[in-house]
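Researcher: Next sequence.
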Amino acid sequence: MAHKHTPERKMRPENLKAKQAMEEEIARLEEEEQCNRKYEWFDDAVEISVWKYFDINYDIIMDFATREDLERWDLLADKLGLSGIYIDHCKKYNRLYPTIEVFRALFMMKDKAQMSLREVLDALKDLNQHNILRAIPWEKGIEKVMASNKLGSNSEVCKPNEKSDIVKFDKGQFSLNITEQPSVLVRGENQGTVNEEIPVNPKPSQPCQGLVIMLIFAQDSRDDAQRVARQLRSPESERGVVQVLQLTGDITNAVAINLRTDPFNCIHKWFKQVRFIVPVLSPQLLAQTQNHDVGKKESKDHIYNRFVYRMMQDQYVNNGSRNTRCRAVCPDVHHKQVMSNMLVRGNGLFQLHWKCSSSEQVEEFAKILWSEYNFS
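Model: Next structure:
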């Protein structure tokens, strides 16, 4: 028996109207997305050397590198003209920073000496890495380079600050050059605000503002970290209060707002202001520093921890493999796993660490911090 064709039911007027409105909205969003992806500001990057851009915009470049490490950085390397041999080298010997190693290799190539920022941006666009192009404040960095160029052309005596914190492209290494002494952080995280009028290099005659540390940890050691922070901050101790700055966990609104608006620049500033960095070693934190743990999508903890570790390692290398600021602790519950990790066994930053599972151990650690602080 022949199958009878059932005529389509007509859509109700109100449903048809809703469908048309939805289609119009989708078309509008697609058109808006296409306009955003034209990236008209790319034209401003044609005459800007990517190496000068990197040199001036440390926080932007570290933000970019941290995010690109989570993407297909090898495709970007290939797009920018790095050979397969060099890409394999970057995979094996990247010192945990593949994107940084890619640009170090490019910098050493004679034909890339004049590479423009536009080439990098076009490569990201061709690879459809629009999330990177949208997330990084490239235009802000371009404005800084243009301002620097203008200042240089109008001044005969202007010289670069030899002690500024910039990314160095030396043939021997590509790392952050941190040479300044830590500034004074007048108020700790637990007190709510950070003094914005902080001298870059306080004179010795200035009054001591107290011992301030930055505490970093992953979620698997959150309880231990919070316990350590509470004890260090305790005003009842005779040794003195240790002010603790946290990037995760129980942070104040002021710190949270700074991390939302300009995270990498703020962390970089705080890194210079505190006296010690105290990582709470755990399997998850070690995985984060090696880029093996990306955490929850809504959390930035892993990015912040990895960023701080980068700065610690760069400073360690620039100081001739002398650890002057990292003072790690490790809870007993994680000690066995931590000690079996190759990153700890072969890392001058983490090899020496203190136990922190009891109040006595934390108190002993605090006294060591104060002793070093008073004689530094």
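Model: The first strand starts at residue 166 and ends at 169. The beta strands are 166-169, 174-177, 211-216, 242-246, 276-279, 328-330, 353-355.
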